[in-house]
Amino acid sequence: MEAGSDDIQALIGLLARLPGLGPRSARRIVLQLIRKRGGQMAQLATLIERVAMNSRECLSCGNITDRDICAICTDPARANGEICVVQDVADLWALERGGAFRGRYHVLGGTLSALDEIGPEDLRIPELIDRITRDSMTEVILALNATVEGQTTAHYIADALDQTAVTITGLAQGVPIGGELDYLDDGTISAALRARRRI
Amino acid sequence: MEAGSDDIQALIGLLARLPGLGPRSARRIVLQLIRKRGGQMAQLATLIERVAMNSRECLSCGNITDRDICAICTDPARANGEICVVQDVADLWALERGGAFRGRYHVLGGTLSALDEIGPEDLRIPELIDRITRDSMTEVILALNATVEGQTTAHYIADALDQTAVTITGLAQGVPIGGELDYLDDGTISAALRARRRI
User: Fold this and answer.
1) Is residue B104 part of a domain?
2) Could you tell me if residue A59 is inside a domain?
3) Is the pLDDT of residue A176 over 80?
């Protein structure tokens, strides 16, 4: 028998299915919430409800927003000519934290996969090509993961844009800032060596 | 700038403060919740609200329950003479998962600590001694952590019960089931050797 009420067990079960959590961490979270319930739990319940009710995909770029078109797409201070293509909203957030990019984004929502039957239409790729043509973008930055799936998707998009005038770029590959060579995989070291620059 | 609405940022901040979570895992959880929002988020919000509203400490043992006295304390099938003393509700749940103990529990809610000024009155120890005397318990099992704080607390309780007729026991120390000697710390190996048994 598991102890605790049915509601507690149901809550633990629900939390345990979230990414990065398991039964043990879900139990610890629930106990902590019950212990500090003054405000914290009510606040959490309210926020989850509000986010569930208000969050949707930006109709233009696929970012998560509480409006039809997200704050990045409507920001007049951002450059219109550059569009950065990412796999997921998490990647968009990661790039925004870096703060180095001041153009627009396009979230694909995944990568091409013959195995999982995910084709270009499932990935907002037609919308991307539409946007690039309609808004006369000058540069497309394919900021996709350096994995086989990410690079396959990047090549597909580059091929599809072959007939347009847009410049297609990708993120540089090399040694991460603060990275120690001894801890890097061989592929990264070789890529960094091939792309070496005069200093 | 962090992307996402203010509500999303607030939700990530709240989740990131839960045990075992950080900003990165909180972001992943929120994105997953938004992605699968059909039902999952509403269900989570409802459950958190219900648990927050209904959960309280059992007036007798300190377990978490939705009634005044918890299901374990009121279960007529459990032995009345044996009481198992644990530090936290998480420990009670762990023992219940094992299913080997069929008596009653008493949750201390922490360990004695001179440094943090936690004395016996802060720990439901007077209530424990009351229960043992009133319900004429025959055995107290001190299932406290094998840490300095846990063992200090165990010794304090044993001293306090010195004048009563109750038998005081503690959990056996030794090699965990499936444990490999080579991976165990020296203290555990020495304890297992000292407590060796004829087979």
Assistant:
1) yes
2) no
3) yes
Q: Tell me, what CATH number does A135's domain have?
A: 3.40.1360.10
User: Does the beta carbon of B40 lie under 8 angstroms from any beta carbon of chain A?
Assistant: yes
Same domain, B46 and B100: no
pLDDT (0 to 100) of residue B4: 63
What's the mean pLDDT in A24-31? 90
Does A102 contact B at CB distance below 8 Å? no
Residues 6+ apart with CB under 8 A from B136: B81
User: What is residue A39's predicted lDDT score, i.e. its pLDDT?
Assistant: 75
Which of B48, B66, B72, B84 should we substitute to test contact with A (largest number of A Cβ atoms within 10 Å)? B48
* Residue to test with chain B: of A9, A36, A47, most B Cβ within 10 A: A47
CB contact under 8 A, A66 and B7: yes
Q: How many domains are contained in chain A?
A: 2
Contact B72, B105 (CB under 8 A): yes
Secondary structure of residue A183 in the 3-state scheme: helix
Cα separation, B154 vs B148, whole angstroms:
10
Helix ranges (H only) for chain B are 6-16, 23-35, 37-54, 71-74, 89-98, 125-134, 148-160, 186-194
Instruction: List all residues of chain B from 125 to 154 with a beta carbon under 8 Å from chain A.
Output: none
Q: What gap in Å lies between CA B169 and CA B103, rounded to an integer?
A: 14
Q: What is the ipTM of this complex?
A: 0.77
A126 and A84, same structural domain?
Answer: yes
pLDDT in tens, A109-151: 999 988 888 998 889 999 999 999 898 899 999 999 888 899 9
**Is the confidence at residue B78, as pLDDT, over 50?**
yes
Q: Which domain holds residue A17?
A: 6-54
Inter-chain residue contact A48 with B44, CB threshold 8 Å: yes
Q: What is the CATH number of the domain that holds A41?
A: 1.10.8.420
